[in-house]
Structures are given as C-alpha cells and as structure tokens.
Amino acid sequence: MHRGYPVVESPETGRERLVVLGSGWGAVSVLKTLERGAYDVTVVSPDNYFIFTPLLPSATVGTVEFRSVLEGIRRITKRVGGAYVEATAVDVDLEDKYVLVEHAGAGRVWLPYDRLVVGVGAQSITHGATGLEYCHKLKTILDARSIRQHIMANFERVMLPTTSDDEKRRLLTFVVCGGGPTGCEFAAELHDLLAEDLRHYFPQSVHDMVRVVIIQSRDHILNMMDSVIGEFAEREFARRKIEVITNARVQAVTDTMLRYTTRAADGTVVEHELPQGFVLWSTGVALTPFTQLLCDRLPAQRNRRAITVDAHLRVKGVADGSVYALGDCATVEFPQLLENIGELFDSAHGADTTEISRAEFTAFVRRAAAQYPSAASHLQSLELNYDLFDTNANGSIDRSEFRRMLEFVDSKLTALPALAQVANQEGVYLGHALNATAVLHAGPLPTEDDASTTRRLRMAHAVAATPFSYHHRGTLAYLGRAAAADFGEGTTYKGSNLAAKYLWRSVYWSQQVSLRTRFLLSMDWCKELLFGRDLSKF
Ligand SMILES: Cc1cc2nc3c(=O)[nH]c(=O)nc-3n(C[C@H](O)[C@H](O)[C@H](O)COP(=O)(O)OP(=O)(O)OC[C@H]3O[C@@H](n4cnc5c(N)ncnc54)[C@H](O)[C@@H]3O)c2cc1C
C-alpha cells in the first residue's frame, strides 16, 4: 500500500518502466517511435482508442463514420510489447515515482514508473462564461455522437405540428462559440449537411429558418493563421450564409438562450440575447484537473494554461528529469539567446576585434542554428537582413547591434500552437530521445566489441542531447466546399471549389495512422458521394 491505495507490482526485467498517460496525438507518436524492448511500457487512458481529431467535425454530421476516425490503442501498444490500462490519472507522487490511476467503478491503484510521459491533452477555457453545461464540446467520439443526435433531434422536433414558429427558429439556430479551426470546421461541416442532404428531406420553409452563427472574441476568425486566410474564410462563410460575429464575448448560456456582449465603436458594451437550439463551446486550451494538480506540486510551474517543459520536453521543476509532457497540455520554454549574449558575441567575433564581420556572422549563424534548432530559421533571416541591423552602416556588427539581433530572434520564439502536428512532432522527438536514453541506460552489450559500443553510445548521446525543434508544415482548414492552408511566412493556399475539398481530404487520408482507417474513410467518402449522409437519429 502507498498512501492508502494498493501498488501494482511489476516483474523485474532490468528495463526502465515507462508510463505514458493519454492515447492522443502526443502519446501515440511516442509509442509509434519507441523501439520494442527499450522499456516496460504501460499506457494509461480513459479511452482505449486514438482519435484522428482533424476529421472529428466530419463525424458529427455523418460525412464519415465514428469508427473511421478511431484506431484501437491496443494495436498501437502491442507494437512496443506494452500494456494498456483503461483508467484516468488522478494524482502523482513525484518523489517516490508513482502515478495514481482510477477506473470508474474499479477504484484506484498506484502505478510505479521510472519515466513518466504526460500527454493528457487540455480542456476548453471557460473565459468566465456561465452555463457551459448547456454546451456541447467536441473532443471525444461521445461528444461527436451527442452532437449528431442533437442536430437531428432539433430537425425532427421542428416538424411536429405542435412546434410554434418562434420555437422552430430557436431550434434551428446553431451557435458555435470560438472561431478557431475546430469551430470553423464544425460550422462548415454543418453547412454541408444542411445544403447537401437535409434540404432534400425537409421543406424549404424549414431550411429558410436555419441559422449557423460563429461568435468569435477576436476581430477575425482563424486568427491563429495568416490574416488573409481569416478574411478569405469570412468571405466564404458570408457566401454560405454562415454568420460570423467578431469582437464578441459570450457571458452566459441557458438551455434556450445565449447572452453575449460586443463593443460599439465608441467603446460602450452592448448586450445581446440570442435564442438558440444548440451551442458548441470550442475555445482555447486550459489545464485539466490532473495537469493543474501536477503544476500545483511544482513551484517552478507558473503558466496557468499548460505545463512548462524545457527544450527536451522535461517538466520544469522535476529535478531528475524523469517526467516529460507534450502536446496540448505542455508549452515548450525554448532557451533565450539573449541570456547568453556574452558567450555568443565572443564566439562570433575574431580575437583581434570587438565587431563581427559579415563572413564571421555567416559562420556564427551556422553554428548557432545547430545549437538552437528552434531558432534556426530566424537566425538565418538575420543573415538576409544583416544590413538592416548594421545601423551605423560600417559593414560589421557591434555588441549593441548584436543585442538587437538576439532580441529579434527571441521575440519570434513564441509558444507553439495547440495543434496535432505539434503534438505529433513532439511525440516523435520524445520517442527517439527515450530510445537513446534506454541505450545509454543499458550501457555496453556483452556481444559487442569496444569500438561498436563506443560508436553506439556516442550516437545515443548525441540524440539524447539534441533539443526539440518544431517545423511548421502548414495548417489546414476546411471551410465547406472550400479549404485554406497556411504554410507560414506568408505562404498560403485558398481554394473555393470541389478540388480544394478533395485536396483537403487527400492530405488527411495520407496522414492516417493505419491502412484500416484509410480503407474505411475511402468507403465513407464514396458512400456519401453516392447516397448522401445517413440522417437517422440514434
Ligand atoms: C475537433 C478537433 C479538430 C481538430 N482539428 C485539428 C486540425 O485540423 N489540425 C491540427 O493540427 N489540430 C487539430 N486539432 C487539435 C489537435 O487535435 C490537438 O492539438 C491534439 O489532439 C493534441 O494532442 P494531445 O496528445 O496533446 O492531446 P489529445 O489528442 O487531446 O489526447 C489526450 C489524451 O489523453 C487522455 N486523457 C485525458 N485525461 C487523462 C488522464 N487524466 N489520464 C490519462 N489519460 C488522459 C484522453 O483520453 C486522450 O486520449 C483539433 C482538435 C479537435 C478537438
């Protein structure tokens, strides 16, 4: 027993025990990268499946089936010879290295670990609004199912002879709180359902009453993407009669009403009431009860929205570096170059001067980019803008000009967005780092000669010592027979035709984690094309 709960005994295998919390993008990418036999792996998650979240909005309206966006976690853990425990992590003892897990109805047990990976995702921020119990979330398959049922239930109620016109209008007002990718993609999918299927089976008078409204707190939707994409999305939505209300804050939701405020041009706050029949709450990320508890245990954790990790994804404040966090629940604190200005400046200029020549600067950028991979592209942009930073135009960089350069680079190292590709890249990185750590932990192998051992350990050391760096490969958004992508640095794609829709689908098809889901998705999309979406409510 440990602090009132039983401890799970694990057999002695000589390998470290790795406990992975979660079965989402981050955790699964770790599991897919880990080498079999490197650790004794245990995965803990309340969901025994991985969800391909970018296609979850499609599942809410029946464009794809629920099972087509899921992959069983046991298939994934089997690859590394790991065990899966269907439970939720509720507490952690960082000193004795136990994590307390709970299975509703079966009680709590402590799982011992040598290394712990926290990939439990996040929950939506409430922004102080009340009545969120009347709102849908869109995180799990059960959420998608209950959204699908709610939409169809509203349409069926509208057709009852006893439903008044006012009630019909209310039931057919679908509100999305949050104009990020999830909210916008859900609105787009809902519009597709209305335009492509429901209009064939419900009278035009019903169709005319439908409203899809997005309420966004910022001045544009999709504000995490390039501003031209937000503006393009707003134009596309206006064409499809999806209403977008910007600079608005939701105050309260009841079972039939939504109250929000906007700010008039003279700064006065105006209150609005919107009768609604459905609300989706899809705002930014916040700590879950478990990650909040973990942060409360560590004085070094000061961020209120995520666990702070270093560039090796180690949780800040855990002295022995045995706890890692990744994905939506974590924020990476990249090393600031300005903190090392003295060392960097001295390494850049020649011994006989205190200024950096252009050739010396080029060599410096190459070295620094390897040392600070997360800052590599910004360091390279300094090279292109060398003359701009050389404010006294003497052809070389002095210390104050160098300081401005480093300030510029540091300002670009912002928090990474809560995206599947961030969680995925972090997971792949951590998987490789853990493989390397296992090699170092195991030490020389009896079957190896000295030279091979040295080479293998040196390589493992290099991998373990390399910090994480993120490479943005583009963010996609589906906008209902239109799609947009932001590849960063001002490069965007906008398409408002069927080709854009199929391009968007083909990208996600190619990113599937298994052949099975590729096959199922292909079938779903063919079915939808030939027979339309299934409108049954079950
Ligand atoms: C509807 C939707 C659409 C999206 N579309 C896109 C998109 O198009 N492109 C994109 O890049 N990103 C998209 N995202 C964001 C992306 O899904 C997230 O950034 C990503 O899922 C984060 O991965 P994660 O592993 O951190 O968390 P998650 O994928 O959320 O996984 C968290 C896991 O932890 C488990 N868990 C939770 N609490 C505990 C606990 N206490 N103990 C153990 N396990 C626990 C959960 O069951 C889950 O398995 C979308 C998100 C949603 C919800």
What does it look like?
This protein is α/β, with parallel strands linked by helices and 538 residues long. Helices cover 40% and strands 20% of the residues. A five-stranded parallel sheet has the order 5-2-1-9-20, with helices on one face. The two termini are 45 Å apart. The model has no long low-confidence stretch (mean pLDDT 92). Flavin-adenine dinucleotide is lined by residues 21-27, 44-47, 53-54, 56-57, 88-89, 119-121, 138-139, 181-182, 288, 290, 327-329, 418-421, 423, 476.
Please give the radius of gyration in angstroms: 26 Å
What top-tier CATH class of the domain at 132-280 and 474-513 fits best? Answer: Alpha Beta
CATH fold-level assignment of the domain at 132-280 and 474-513: FAD/NAD(P)-binding domain
Average pLDDT score:
92
Strand order of the largest sheet: 5-2-1-9-20
Task: Sum up the overall morphology in one term.
Answer: globular
- Any idea what the CATH architecture of the domain at 132-280 and 474-513 is? 3-Layer(bba) Sandwich
Identify low-pLDDT runs: none
Instruction: Let me know the largest β-sheet.
Output: 5 strands, parallel
Instruction: Note the total helix count.
Output: 18
Q: Helix content range of the residues, please?
A: 25-40%
Overall number of strands: 24
SS-derived structural category: alpha/beta
Taking the alpha carbons of the first and last residues, their distance comes to: 45 Å
Which percent range describes the beta-strand content?
15-25%
- Catalogue the ligands: flavin-adenine dinucleotide
Membrane topology: Peripheral membrane protein
Family: Belongs to the NADH dehydrogenase family.
Domain EF-hand: 377-412
InterPro entries: EF-hand-dom_pair, EF_Hand_1_Ca_BS, EF_hand_dom, FAD/NAD-bd_sf, FAD/NAD-binding_dom, NDH-2, NDH2-like_C
